[in-house]
Amino acid sequence: MKHNVYFEGGVQSIGFERNGARASVGVIAPGIYHFGTAAAERMNVVSGALRAKIADGDWQLYPAGTAFEIAANSGFDVEAVGGPAAYLCQFLA
């Protein structure tokens, strides 16, 4: 396991690998953050709600129980809405 801290503690995650698949679980504090992606990702919202702007798209709301995908070699902006939000990020092969 690897603990990651981004944006002066505004986003924290624990990365892990299971059965050859990489993933991370974490919490996003209120604020807007930009992430670049090397690999394609699926962001599953576990608790709370996230707004995300993927590449050049529009902002969309993702409440707990929903997910969004980001293409490899691109990026996205994300914002926790109404308080901290928890996520599971799966790295897609």
Question: Care to describe what's here?
Answer:
With 93 residues, the protein is mostly beta strands. It has one domain (2-92): Jelly Rolls (Sandwich). Helix content is 0%, strand content 71%. It has strands at 2-6, 11-18, 21-28, 31-37, 40-47, 49-54, 59-63, 67-70, 74-80, 85-92. The strands form two sheets. It has a six-stranded antiparallel beta sheet, with no helix packed on it. It has a four-stranded antiparallel beta sheet with strand order 4-9-6-7, with no helix packed on it. It is globular and about 35 Å long.
CATH architecture: Sandwich
- Distance linking N and C termini: 20 Å
Helical content stands at under 10%
Number of domains: 1
The helix/strand series, from N terminus to C terminus, equals: EEEEEEEEEE
Shape: globular
CATH homology superfamily name: Jelly Rolls
Taking the sheet with the most strands, its summary is: 6 strands, antiparallel
Cross-sheet strand order for the largest sheet: 1-2-3-10-5-8
Radius of gyration: 12 Å
CATH class: Mainly Beta
Low-confidence stretches: none
Percentage beta strand? over 45%
- Secondary-structure content class: mainly beta
Q: According to CATH, what is the topology?
A: Jelly Rolls
Number of helices: 0
